[in-house]
Specification:
The chain is α+β, with helices and mostly antiparallel strands. The chain has three domains: 5-60; 70-268, Helix Hairpins; 272-398, Cathepsin D, subunit A, domain 1. Helices cover 56% and strands 19% of the residues. The protein contains eleven helices and 13 strands.
Length: 401
């Protein structure tokens, strides 16, 4: 029988072993000797084959299988777990987690309820703003109607008594509606101011809660970073990496990655910006304001109820004052009272904070020395804080939609 080629080395070793143990002599019985040699050759060949296969398996063993022989004992793992536990860390599957992030996680979860409440307040404020806008549009339409009726009255005066009387009646009815709308306007503006106050308080509370969570996160991040620098912690982490395939290289950012992502998503809803102010005469502070698409310099005045523009500035900004624009009387800082016309500015922006449909007053042309004022009709759209010492205005808005 021919031996397979891959066992020929083993066969050669077995044959040499037999011949060495039983050298032939002239006194041997030839048949008996051949039987013994065949039996011994077969046994030796099997032994050599087993040795060869064993050496092959050991040298070609997969790394993962070989690594199981060098794992740490349960006692060592238990000691490593206690070291990590003392540092607020634990092994979970193939990851290392912190046990100190529970409060932060709960705080982030509770934000969803606070956000829902904030959204309801924002909706109430928008509804109040829509009611004020509707009232303003109605007043503009009624004033326009009165103007047209007055023109018709001028044409028929002294010519057609019946038409004259009819127009006078229509004008009086329209003016009565205007008085009613003006009274309603005051109530609507008070409601809007109340809703804005509630919204400002809610936005401030929400933003402060998020800032507090971020502060707690930074403290935890620093604490974990210090723990990872300790020698005993590093040894314990090596034990876990060997036995449970946890990451061999760890950082606080890796351990807190999921918490950080949740916090970043929440922070994206909060818009905060500090805008530098320019000092002016008499201690005033000014800022560049974009009206529509054109910039102009205004004095920030939280005591002014409206955005106020001199006639010259309004022309420079391309603002047209309708003939039927409502007349308002404004009191200046020096005590003077001056006439102005009410208009609505489609868009007003400072920095990244923009408001739409902002009420403004265009001063009569006689107020040549007046400065543009950024009043509450714009500022009320945001939570704002003016720091006179730092010469900045900080605005806050929360997008809970």
């Amino acid at each position: 029988m021919r031996i397979p080629f891959y066992l020929e080395p083993c066969s050669y070793l077995a044959r040499r072993s037999v011949e060495t143990c039983y050298p032939p002599t002239r006194y041997d019985n030839r048949a008996a000797r051949e039987m013994s040699l065949n039996h011994l050759f077969t046994w030796t060949l099997r032994s050599v084959v087993i040795v060869c296969l064993t050496l092959y398996v050991l040298t070609e063993m997969p790394q993962g299988l070989a690594a199981t022989e060098s794992r740490y004992s349960p006692e060592v793992v238990q000691k490593a777990e206690k070291i990590l536990e003392a540092e607020g860390l634990r092994q979970s599957g193939k990851t290392i987690q912190t046990t100190k992030a529970t409060e932060i996680s709960r705080a982030l979860t509770s934000l969803s309820r606070q956000q829902r409440e904030l959204k309801l307040i924002q909706q109430s404020w928008k509804a109040a703003q829509a009611a004020v806008d509707l009232n303003r549009n109605q007043l503009q339409q009624m004033n326009t109607q009165v103007g047209e009726l007055n023109l018709q009255l001028a044409r028929v005066a002294g010519v057609n008594v019946q038409a004259n009387n009819r127009l006078v009646g229509l004008i009086e009815a329209a003016r009565s509606q205007i008085r009613t709308a003006m009274a309603n306007r005051t109530k609507l503006q008070e409601q809007l101011a109340a809703e804005r106050s509630k919204l400002t308080a809610a936005e401030t509370e929400y933003a402060e809660t998020v800032l507090a969570i971020r502060s707690d996160y930074e403290k935890l991040h620093h604490s974990i970073s210090e723990s990872l620098q300790k020698k005993e912690t590093q040894i314990a982490l090596r034990v876990m990496a060997t036995n449970f395939e946890t990451p061999s290289e760890l950082s606080a950012a890796m351990i807190l990655r999921s918490i950080d992502k949740r916090l970043e998503r929440v922070e994206q809803e909060i818009f905060r910006e500090s805008i530098p102010l320019t000092p002016g005469s008499g201690g005033s502070l000014g800022v560049t304001v974009v009206v529509g698409s054109k910039p102009t310099h205004m004095i920030v005045d939280s005591g002014a109820s409206l955005v106020t523009l001199p006639a010259k500035t309004a022309v420079e900004l391309g603002i047209e004052v309708p003939v039927e624009a409502r007349q308002v009387m404004l009191q200046m800082a020096d005590g003077r009272t001056i006439s102005a016309r009410a208009v609505v500015l489609p868009r007003v922006r400072i920095g990244e904070f923009e408001a739409e449909n902002v009420e403004a007053a265009i001063l009569d042309s006689i107020a040549t020395d007046a400065e543009p004022l950024l009043g509450m009709s714009f500022l009320q759209h945001f939570k704002f804080e003016i720091d006179a010492s730092e010469k900045t205005i900080t605005l806050l808005r929360v997008a809970a939609d």
